[in-house]
Structures are given as structure tokens and as C-alpha cells.
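Protocol step 4 of 5: obtain the predicted structure for the target chain.
Materials: sequence only (see below). No template structures provided, no constraints applied. The aim of this step is simply to have a reference model before the mutagenesis design in step 5. Sequence pasted as it appears in the construct record:
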Amino acid sequence: MSFKIEKISYQYSAEAPLILKNINMEIRPAEVTAIVGPSGSGKSTLVSILSGVIPELMNKGLLTGTFHHKDDVMISVVSQTPENQLFGYGVEDALAFGVENLGLSSEKISERVESVLNLLHIQHLRKRAVSTLSGGQRQAVCIASVLAMKPDLVIMDEPVSSLDPKGKHLIQSVVNQLRAAGQTTVIVDNNLDWFSDIVDHVVGIDHGEVVFDGNRDEFFADAPLAQRLGVIVPQTVDIYHELAKKADDLKPFTTVDEAYAALKDRFVSATSQQAADTQSPSEHVLEVNDLSKSFADGFQALKKINAGFEKGKIISILGQNGSGKTTLVKHLNGLHRPTAGSVTYLGKKTTNKSVAEISRDVILVFQHPEHMLFEENVYRELTFCARAQGIPFAEKDAMEVLENYDLLKDKEELPVNLSMGKKHLLTILSVLFSSAEVVILDEPTLGMDLHLRRHLEAIIHKLKEQGKTVILISHEIPLVFKLSDQLLVLDHAEKLAAGSVQQLAENEALFEKIQIDLPPVVRLSKKLGLSPLACDVASFAAQIDELQKIGGAERG
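Step 4 output (C-alpha cells):
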């Protein structure tokens, strides 16, 4: 069954500008269609039309054009905020809710619940209360609750934004299984990286208009378009476009194996003259000593963690969902108190300090920005930390920050009305006006397209330049390797390893154990025998360029 949109235009009121302008597109049966575009391009409005929210529930706007589909079709949406979509106290209740509303028998309901528990490998969560689940677990349950209804069209809005690498692989596998079984799926996500292997059709939207409608390879071939739309492509595609700037005869590649085949004969020696990072360690601004945490239900979230966080460094904490990452950082700013062990800041224990006192020095930006937004406009939200801590600031400095990070036009907007990515950006920017010496960012890329991620990178580098310590939790592994100085690896509530990015990148067994793939640029560096290993695209391209020059000189 195909779904066809013809000449769809939409505006929220007669006075408002057009959000969508003459949209034409077809969603073909048994295919995975990606809808991509920058924040504010109209993607969410298009999803509301596809799902029937517009005009059935939101009927005050002006909608023209036609959406062709059968009358009895079922279209279901997986929201990017699962908390808004999970009904019921327990996981089984949440999974059964939608199916119960279809009027099926209790036997059929049980069958469908059992089926999606098995499909998404979440049988172990069936008796859990929804409120006790991690962000990634809630997202998996949300996806399962939608699939249990067996809709004709599934629309997934950033379905893996809170999932760990293992979870992303699982969702990719599930979508591929459904595709093979004839399921039609739309994925609205500017991160094409995680599902590039299974996407059939890409639709690019910018300023409310379709600017691309074609297959995956055609889209990947057009680097300027992908950048304009803020789309995150596989790192191997970025590597190709970076190298192709100086090698126009280079054949396109999208996988590590294809990249290796294209590059292995292009230079003579694999010994780069670039030195590995050998910076001497600096003082620990923050430490945890024999830190353990058990909750009231007996669950042990942390087991004797010892770790130090150096001043002026970017340290990323890696591990699958449930490994203890967020629990650990909530101890650093006092939201959790240890069952045993201690946290010290500048050599002094934080045991007797309140959260408010600790937050002057150690600030945590939550995974879900809605939990931190409560001011009446963007300007006041940006300067909240400064006002709360009594720190003087110049209005012109705040306005300059808003302008530099493309938020000036939103300065009078209610913060909760911003896109998810901009909400996250705003909460992080407010830290620039705080007194904190340690900044903790928990999954800061949630809802961010490529443009917003570049802003995020700039903020993190700015904090580092100011001598601040940045602690990052992220499942975006290529970004982690690009930004970080050091890694702390957790697994099943225990510290597994700690060290520089270069050091740990050499340890393939470590990443196999925690079921996290090394970034493509690291894996390609290993296959090509580069030393030191490149951890980001720019350093990889620089090493290849150097080796080609060496090879050319030797041949000369």
C-alpha cells in the first residue's frame, strides 16, 4: 500500500507564514523512507499531517492539497519523547494499551505483547514500572507499543536518540525485518548514520519545500546538500568527501571495507610523522573514591568506582544503557548520595554540601532539556544561571551569544516551544554564564541536526579554552572520539577502563566487551596501519595527505 501526498501546503493561521509549500511525495510500500531537513524545516508538521493530527486534532490551520490513502488505514507514530506516549504503570500495561483500543480479545492482546517483547529483546523489562526505566529502555518500550498494533504505516521520529549503540543496532535490525515482511516505514531523523544500510528512499525538506527526492547513494553523493540540510551521514562518507577534495579520481565508498579497498594502494608507507598526544596529566578537579550506590529495591547501580577528572579536559563516559553513567554523574553534582565511598571537589568531600552549593561548581545539563526550562523567554533562560548565582553580566554579551548560536530571532520565544535540538542548545549555553568549573553534559546531541552539533562542538571547545572540565555522556561514538581527551568506560556498574582516547582506541577487546563499535575512522586507520590512530576525519585526511607526499617523494 502506497501513501501519496499531492500539493500539500499548510500554515498555522491565515496571518502565519507557510510552513509547508506545495509538497509532493510518495511513500512506497515495503520501503524505509527517510525524511530529513534542518530544524524548523517543516518535518514535524509533515508528520502531523501524515498521522492525521492535522487536521483531525489541530484544525485551526489552513491545509490545502491531498493525502491519498485507504479509508481504513492505520498510521502510528513513535514519538521522540516516549514519556508522552507511554500509558500505564507497568511495561506490559504500556504495551497492551494501544492493542486494547483495537478491541481485540485478551488472547490476541497477550500474543501481540509477547511478540514485541521478543522482537525487541525486552522480555526482562516486562514486570518493570515504566517510571523506573532508563531513557533508552523507555524508547524501546515505546517502539514496541506501536509495533504491537501492526500499523500499515509506522512513522518513527528520532527513534534511537536515547538508545545506546547496542540498542541502535537492534532497532536497525527490527526495521529491516519489518521491511522484509512488507512493512512500510518512515523515519524522521537527521542522523542517517545509524540506518543508512536499510534506507531505500530519502526526502529532503528545507524551508517547507522538497529539495531532494531520491535514493540513498544519490543523496550521499551530494555533500553540499547534506550539509545544507544538517544531515549527519556515515563517517565513511565524510572521509570520502574530505579526501576527494585532493583526489578527484577517488571512487566513492560508504563502508570501511570499501574505503580500505579504495585507499590501500594510494600511498607507500603507513608510518605517519604525526606525534601521538603525550600531554602530561594535570590536577584532578573532581574525584570519586570507592563510590558505590544501591537503591531501595536492592539494585546496585555502582560498585566501588574510582576515577579522577582532570582540570581543562574533555572526558567522555562510555557504556551501554544501564552501565551506571548517569547514576555516576548525578553523584558528582549531589543529586544522588553514595551508599559508600565519596566524591571530592578540589580535594574536599562534598558530603555535607547541598545540591545548590555543589551546582555552583559542578553543573549537570540533563538529557531531557524540558526538565531545565521554566523561564518566560529564551533571553531570560540563557541568563538564568548568572542571575541565580548573582554573577554580573552585560546584556550585549548575552545578545552576542544568542546571535552567534542562531537564537537571536527566538529571544522572546517561550523556551519550551523551541525544537528539541534548540532546547538542548539553550540549556547548554546558559552554562556559559555560570560559575561552574565542571560541566556535565548528558546526551547533549538529542534532537540536534548537523548545524546544532557544530554549535555544540564550539561550546565544548570554548569551555575547555576557559580551563573548565567537561564531562560528556554520549552514544554518538564518532563525536566522542573527535572531541574527547580521555575516556572512562563503565560496564555493569563497574569501572572497566580509563585513559586517553588514543590509548583506549588501540584496545579492540575492550570495545568488543562493551559491545560498542569503534568509529569507522579508527577502524579504517587500523586496517591501513596508521600510527598514531586517527580519531576524527580531519586528522585522518591530514595523515593520508602526508603519507601520499612521502610516497610521492620516495617514488621521485
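Step 4 remarks: The CA atoms of residues 83 and 103 lie 24 Å apart. DSSP finds 22 helices and 19 strands in the chain.
Proceed to step 5.
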